[in-house]
Amino acid sequence: MSDDITNEKRALRAELRERRRIITSDERESATAGVTRHLEELTSELGVTSVAAYLSTPDEPNTRDFLHWACDRGIRVLLPISREDGLLDWAPYDGKDEDEDVFGMPTPTTEVLGPIAINSVDLIVVPAASVDRSGMRMGWGRGYFDKTLGSMERCPPVYAVIFDSELVDTVPSEVHDQRVNGVVTPGGITKF
């Protein structure tokens, strides 16, 4: 059974990567504006003073405008740094310099904090390949965010950032997969 789910996830991820790859620059620009506006709205609505988020890759919905907005307003931003042992370290982000972690993912260049630094944030913004209408998140297969969220004693609201078409009826899931409280898309905010 688990092999079937793993294969189903692998096929769905490949399809989603291809769909993201062919999005036009005009569509990306429009999506960035929508995602930024809705992340700002969510952050303001929740009264967030600190957020754990991520620097988007070129094929993901763009989070950089939102992160710069948050930094400009004095909101503390923590970004993940992938470790080879499967855990995430966190680093404060100032909206400036970026580097790459062990997997080539963009990360800040500031001091590295340990995995428990995320325990002090008011909101967690995570990447996803797809999310279903029950809040089940399907990530990209490394399990970093599932491990992090599953280990937290007191987890603040968690929102995934995806394109509108990636909010679907169901996604394949396994025991370790973690649900999110909502999604932010170019078209709006959906809460579960």
UniProtKB/TrEMBL annotation:
Entry keywords, A to Z: ATP-binding, Magnesium, Metal-binding, Nucleotide-binding
Kindly indicate whether the keyword Membrane belongs to this entry: no
What does the record list as GO biological process?
A: folic acid-containing compound biosynthetic process; tetrahydrofolate interconversion
Q: Which residues bind ATP?
A: 9-13
Q: Which InterPro entries match?
A: FTHF_cligase (IPR002698), FTHF_cligase-like_sf (IPR024185), NagB/RpiA_transferase-like (IPR037171)
Q: Which GO terms describe its molecular function?
A: 5-formyltetrahydrofolate cyclo-ligase activity; ATP binding; metal ion binding
Q: Does the keyword Heme apply?
A: no
Taxonomic superkingdom: Bacteria
Top-level EC class as recorded in UniProt? ligase
Q: Where does substrate bind?
A: 55, 60
Matching entries from Pfam families are given as: 5-FTHF_cyc-lig
The similarity annotation says: Belongs to the 5-formyltetrahydrofolate cyclo-ligase family.
What this protein needs as a cofactor is: Mg(2+)
Quote the EC number.
6.3.3.2
User: What protein is this chain from?
Assistant: 5-formyltetrahydrofolate cyclo-ligase
Reactions mediated catalytically: (6S)-5-formyl-5,6,7,8-tetrahydrofolate + ATP = (6R)-5,10-methenyltetrahydrofolate + ADP + phosphate
